Amino acid sequence: MTKKLKGLNKKEEFSTLVNWIINKLPPFKSMDLRHKVNDELYQTPIQRRAREIRVGKTMLKTSQAGTVSYDWPEQITYETLDVEIITTSAIRANIINAAKMDGKLLSAQEIAEREKLYIGWNLQPKEISTSQSEQEDRNCWDEVLTEQEREILGEFLDV
Fold it and tell me: What pTM was computed for the model?
């Protein structure tokens, strides 16, 4: 409980995260659980509903040798873990893995700079000219039509 996540081996890290999901993941929150099998990195979406935990389809993230699942901040333990920290650690791991694919080794400062760019880009509102999408459920999108699109669609269906 008091061990730092950064110091855990992959088996301990995975066990800690699964235990945290079962016992501490807040209701109506979601996260991606990562795990490595034979140097392949897999990612599984996890959602907590009111009284149930939903596990999505496990997908191959990368098959590059030496990839990192998460890049934990130094002070993080089981007790201080939350969804934002897990998400940020996965983003930092993505940055590290992308740099490794390019044959680069990034410093902590370079990772932090790229993380800010990534998060800033990800948080900017997306402009969609003719229609907007609203996320209803993880990996599920409802299309919202503008008034002009509804009129065009109505004319087409009346013919």
Answer: 0.69
